[in-house]
# Entry
Amino acid sequence: MTEDQIRKILEEYKAGALSPDDALHRLRSLPFEDLGFANIDHHRTLRQGFPEVIFGMGKTVDQVAKIVESMHKHNHNILITRTTPAHFERVKQIAPPSSFRKTQRLSAKVP
# Structure
């Protein structure tokens, strides 16, 4: 989550366009989201200037998909290293448009 995204939530709440429960729900996954097999650092962009990178090797297609779904719903740029064509096929269904770099074994989605 970026500063602009947090600011937007606060402004919507202040303007009455967002209920306290809705604002809390949108902020609930901050700063980390535990998926059971991976923790996603949604505040990394605020601290480091860029989001987490997913290390695909050793993760199932479903695990990578769940991480991508979480990052995509938070509007993160998504980069997956050591990925496979099978990972990419699922990623592009979740977060189009995505691209795959076969030689580098990278999948990426940039909003």
Observations:
- The mean pLDDT is 88.
- The radius of gyration is 15 Å.
- Strands lie at 32-34, 39-41, 54-55, 78-81, 99-101, 106-109.
- The helical segments are 3-14, 20-27, 44-48, 61-73, 85-94.
